[in-house]
Write a structure and sequence with these properties.
Elements lengths: L33 H7 L7 E12 L2 E12 L4 E7 L5 E8 L3 E6 L9 H14 L8 E4 L3 E7 L5 E7 L4 E6 L6 E11 L2 E11 L4 E12 L2
Antiparallel strand pairs: 1-2, 1-12, 2-3, 3-4, 4-5, 6-7, 7-8, 8-9, 9-10, 10-11, 11-12
């Protein structure tokens, strides 16, 4: 069986997956305080969510579709992903924390893949767990958007861009976004929480693009 996944994460390719444009509404003003944005930000809520999602991994010209069930504990900063291929075959069962990961189950063909758990865990961590806006970040307003900015070592920066509705639309790390970038779009209410239906991560260093489509969200009570 030929199943490709994150073992190509470190591969050098001649084609970089395209970065989708960030489109913000132009006919509105962002007037939230930094405290209001943090209070309403879905990734800062003390909730546990069960998410059904579809995914497309692009590494250069290669495209690998997947399906998955994600348990996301935002208060403890933990995620557990059960990933399957389009035929329903379980690829792996991975638990991720803010600073580590544990592979509970993996398809035999992927068991010897170097860096499998680390590659998947890093993407999940960046999208759902860390980094997050902090109260001591620099806070700036730009008409229809607002952002938290955190200077890092060696001239790098970390930014969190919110639109005029107070919803996170972009997280960027690095100078001129050379390292990685996450776009969050098409927010929809799932119960009392507004969550993006589409999430796109671009890892520019490794020429990788991961797109997620949120199909269903249930809050664990």
């Amino acid at each position: 069986m030929r199943i490709l996944l994150f073992f190509l994460l470190m591969a050098t390719t001649s084609c970089t997956p395209a970065t989708p444009p960030l489109q913000l509404a132009q006919d509105c003003n962002a007037v939230f305080t930094s405290a209001e944005l943090m209070e309403g930000h879905w990734l800062l809520q003390p909730k546990t969510l069960r998410i059904r999602q579809s995914a497309l991994l692009e590494i250069g010209r290669k495209k690998i579709p997947m399906e998955g069930f994600l348990r996301l504990d935002l208060e403890r900063e933990e995620a557990r992903l059960l990933a399957m291929n389009e035929m329903g075959v379980v690829l792996f069962d991975l638990q991720v924390t803010s600073d580590g990961e544990q592979l509970h189950r993996v398809l035999p063909q992927l068991q010897q893949v170097k860096g499998l758990a680390q590659g998947v865990a890093q993407s999940l961590r960046q999208i759902f767990l860390r980094p997050k806006p902090q109260r001591d970040d620099q806070f700036e307003s730009f008409g229809n958007s607002q952002r938290f900015l955190r200077p890092l070592a060696e001239g790098d920066t970390l930014t969190f861009l919110f639109d005029c509705q107070g919803e996170l639309r972009e997280t960027r790390y690095g100078v001129d976004s050379r390292d990685w970038r996450i776009l969050y779009g098409h927010y929809q209410s799932f119960g009392a929480v507004r969550i993006p239906q589409e999430i796109v991560l671009n890892d520019y260093q490794h020429n990788v693009k991961l797109s997620l489509w949120i199909r269903e969200v249930k809050e664990e009570l």
